[in-house]
UniProtKB/TrEMBL annotation:
Domain of life: Eukaryota
Protein name stated in the entry: AKA14 protein
Gene from which this protein is expressed: Akap14
UniProt-listed InterPro entries: AKAP, AKAP_28
Coiled coil (residue ranges): none
GO cellular component, one term: cAMP-dependent protein kinase complex
MF (Gene Ontology): protein kinase A regulatory subunit binding
Length: 133
């Protein structure tokens, strides 16, 4: 069967605010297929001024705390960028992309199926590294 990408209706450049961007990231995450044991926290990091756009950087930190280990041994971060064009009409939707911690591969929500395994791999790699040290 063919997978149907789940995406959301992104706000326009004219209606964009830092808070709206964070709300929309949360909205996107709610469409992802992750187990309910995963908890996350989203935060705004910085605004970046470019010649033809403004980029807004966010970080979403993930973990799976349990009763036995309420403080997780490691976390996994996903970095989002919301780009507001200075060239396109302000009624155009913002551009959104994200990268996984320790990866340079850029993912676009409308072209990418998020995988819970990515989060698990990041955390497992960190734990393995800590155990070696």
């Amino acid at each position: 069967t063919k997978y149907v990408f789940k995406n959301i209706q992104w706000t326009t450049g004219k209606n964009f605010t830092v808070e709206r961007g964070q709300q929309q990231i949360e909205e996107l995450i709610s469409t992802w297929e992750v187990h309910e044991s995963w908890l996350h926290h989203a935060e705004f990091l910085q605004e970046e001024e470019l010649t033809s756009s403004k980029r807004y950087h966010y970080r979403v930190c993930w973990s799976t705390p349990t009763r036995q280990k309420p403080v997780p041994r490691a976390t996994a971060s996903i970095y989002f960028v919301i780009e507001v064009s200075k060239i396109k009409p302000d009624t155009s939707p913002v551009e959104v992309f994200f990268t996984l911690e320790a990866s340079r591969l850029i993912h676009r929500p409308e072209q990418c199926r998020f995988r819970e395994k990515w989060l698990k791999d990041i955390i497992e790699n960190k734990i393995t590294l800590m155990e070696r040290l």
